[in-house]
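Please produce the structure of this protein holding phenylalanine.
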Amino acid sequence: MTQPSADSIHSLTQRAILQLAEASDAEALEQWRVAYLGRRGELTNILRGLSGLDMEQRRELGALGNRAKTELEERLAGRTAEVSRAQQDAAFARDRIDVTLPGRPTIQGRLHPTTQIVREITDAFAGMGFSIVEGPEVEWDRYNFEMLNIPEGHPARDMWNSLWVDYRDEGGRQPMLLRTHTSPMQARVMESTQPPVRVVVPGKCYRYEATDATHEWHFYQIEGLAVDEGITFADLKGTLYEFARRLFGEERRVRFRCDYFPFVEPGVDMSIDCFSCDGNGEGCRICRDSGWIEIMGAGMVHPKVLADVGYDTEKYTGFAFGVGPERVAMLKYGIDDIRHFYSNDLRFLSQF
Ligand code: PHE
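Below is the modeled complex.
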């Protein structure tokens, strides 16, 4: 046991203070505490040794020892606070966030250009009183052809030589295909409602097709149908002129030509002057030298089609049209190849 003396207390205290300054983590601090102030610590030992001294010395050294103990305890508390602050500062420095760094941009999706133009076109017709409905992409032969006055063996089927889906039930094989146009919805809508009818039907169509700058094997159409008493060809032209004006503005030229579709009579196609050659046509691969780009087929609904859905053909007449929205987008935005739409190249898609 250490022989207590004022000197030994003093030198112990000095040593402890010097050593404490070196303790720089919680573990070292605890070791230090055990070494000096613990149950078997050096200072504790000295204080314990006081009991063997006489009264006078005991009082004197006792007071000295207690002061030393208090001092060491206070210094330990101070150093502990210092160490934990230093550790905190180091952690802050390590995890520092530089708020002046530019953020990482999140890539934001957007609507496909076809979706955008389909909405624009359907909005234009909605503004003229048409409602918007949708129909199935896999369609019965009956609606895609039969109900549109294209019976089995009709030459018009050749134009729509298409992608067949084999469907069988108890009744045998039912011919089904990926619809070649949205026109089957004419028959479906009329079968389920009575005039007046005013609908537009956006949707995907599919054809067995050699692709080029203006033809894709799958594409969108927007079908339109208006049936009521007293509807004439003038209504058809008025409505479609108004549509062209809303989409392309006043200055764009519009052309109607006679065309044949078995489910309309008379039938027309509607073209807009070519954006690429400004309607000149010479050597233009977009309009194939014609100066015009066809964007839709249209006509007065054939009486046979009206009769087949049970409408009174003496009372009701109507017009129908089918717009190609990708072609409309090409004209509007100067896109020179329809195949861009579905090749999923972000360099193209992100421009819209
Ligand atoms: N369904 C025709 C096509 O795909 C377009 C059309 C629709 C023509 C309605 C006349 C009336 O080409």
